[in-house]
Write a structure and sequence with these properties.
Elements (H helix, E strand, L loop, with lengths): L3 E6 L3 H21 L3 E7 L15 E2 L13 E4 L6 H12 L3 E4 L2 H18 L3 E2 L10 H8 L5 E7 L2 H13 L3 H10 L8 H4 L2 H15 L9 E2 L7 H10 L1 E12 L2 E12 L11 E8 L3 E8 L3 H16 L26 E2 L1 E7 L5 H12 L3 E9 L5 E7 L2 E2 H11 L10 E5 L2
Helix pairs in contact: 1-10, 2-3, 3-8, 5-6, 11-12
């Protein structure tokens, strides 16, 4: 049998994991793929680095962008970055008529449509199962398993770092900064964690899921994004008292008024499966009009799970299973208008840190009243270390625009000791 020859760019945690996986399961993979899958060339920044695997058996290419010229059938890109060498390699590979496998959600979020056009023009595969939720087969699930359904909504926990932080705060009552430091020490968070905790990583993944779910061109720039920096241990505790758990969710819906995409901390009812997803786990829910609710859950990162997803894509290519990258030809992907979040209806949790003085509650209540926000409950807690008082409001269902207007009325008020926190209640 003629092997499928692989050129591998990037020998970090995942790249080394791909080599170990092919070494360990090579015979099984060959039987499932119908042919052996063999790495023939590799490229990385440091040739001499000890990675715990033997790379001396592979041809070495110093310039990663030239890996497309190697005697290989498929190039696997595990370098990362939305532009730079990763994008240059993707363009060169597809332009040379070779299939391309990547775990690079940032590149796909920014350039996925271009690369899909290039792959289809060359008649080769562009696959990216590992780009969303690590080893969880959510891309294949949406692209193939749920292909007969009109997807009504897709949402989920898309960033393991944030979920580790939030679920640890919940379990141990600790503050955000303390848990973030632990996440960094344990390797769950980067030294600069901004992409994770500010929601950018989740937004990259959401734009890919939305494209697959709704047949629209990837639109990362249209994702409304808020991270978890502003959360306090007190917010987690208040949510628990109300029967909710806080999770950073990416959520996308398509409707008559356009495509809605948002990454935002939510209060998730304890009765919902996502409320019980803890640690660095990812979980995605897709709601189809015939299949109902589908839940995909598992390890969202790490060498084993992510390498598993990469090699699953290689098995598909070895079998000759290409298909359009985004479930339909790139020429048929619609350009959707951005839906106005202000018209969305729902309930909200709004938390204020206020000065301990007469009239503060009346000022907040008046702003809510004037904006047309109906208050379901109001909670006031005692002074914190800085003398501020926590006031938390849960609203009745209403338009999001009204809550935004109420907060705008309170902007700059001397009664506030800091900016308010607004979280949505998942419905």
């Amino acid at each position: 049998m003629i092997p499928l020859r692989i050129a591998l760019a990037g020998l970090g945690t995942v790249g080394s994991g791909v080599i170990r996986l092919l070494d360990a399961n090579g015979d099984l993979i060959a039987r499932r793929a119908g042919r052996p899958i063999e790495i023939v060339a590799v490229s990385a920044r440091d040739r001499a680095k000890d990675r715990g695997v033997d790379i001396g058996r592979f041809a070495w290419v110093d310039d990663t962008t030239r890996l497309a010229e190697a005697q290989a059938d498929v190039v696997v890109e595990l370098v990362g970055g939305s532009d730079g060498p990763a994008l240059a390699l993707a363009r060169a590979t597809l332009g040379a008529g070779k299939s391309f496998v990547t775990a690079n959600k940032a590149m796909l979020a920014h350039h996925g449509l271009e690369l899909a056009h290039a792959a289809e023009a060359s008649g080769v595969a562009l696959k990216f199962e590992a780009a969303v939720a690590g080893g969880v087969p959510v891309i294949k699930g949406l692209r193939e398993g749920a292909a007969a359904n009109a997807i009504e909504r897709v949402y989920g926990i898309l960033n393991g770092t944030c979920n580790f932080i939030l679920s640890t705060m919940e379990a141990e009552g600790r503050d955000f900064g303390d848990v973030l430091a632990e996440a960094q020490a344990r390797g769950f968070a980067e030294v600069d964690p901004s992409f994770d905790i500010d929601g950018v990583d989740a937004a990259h993944k959401l734009s890919i899921l939305a494209s697959l779910a709704f047949g629209t061109a990837p639109a990362f720039a249209e994702v409304e994004t808020t991270g978890i920096r502003a959360l306090l241990a007190a917010d987690i505790a208040e949510a628990a008292a109300l029967g909710y758990r806080v999770r950073l969710l990416g959520l996308a819906e398509a409707g008559p008024h356009g495509l809605f995409q948002r990454v935002h901390p939510h209060l998730v009812p304890v009765s919902h499966p996502l409320a019980h997803v803890a640690g660095a786990t990812n979980a995605v829910v897709a709601e189809g009009n015939f299949v109902g609710r589908l839940l995909f859950q598992g390890a969202g990162a790490g060498d084993g799970p992510t390498a598993s997803a990469v090699v699953a894509d290689l098995i598909d290519i070895a079998r000759g299973e290409f298909g359009p990258p985004y479930a339909m030809p790139a020429t048929q992907l619609a350009t959707a208008a951005r839906a106005d979040s202000g018209t969305r209806h729902g309930r909200a949790y709004v938390r204020f840190l206020v000065q301990d003085k007469v009239g503060v509650l009346a000022e907040i209540a008046a702003a809510m009243r004037d904006a047309g926000v109906s208050i379901e409950s109001l909670i006031q807690r005692g002074r914190g270390e800085n003398g501020a008082v926590l006031v938390a409001i849960v609203t009745h269902e209403g338009p999001e625009r009204a809550v935004a207007q109420a907060l705008e009325k309170l902007r700059g008020s001397s009664s506030l000791a800091g900016p308010p926190l607004w979280m949505h209640l998942l419905q």
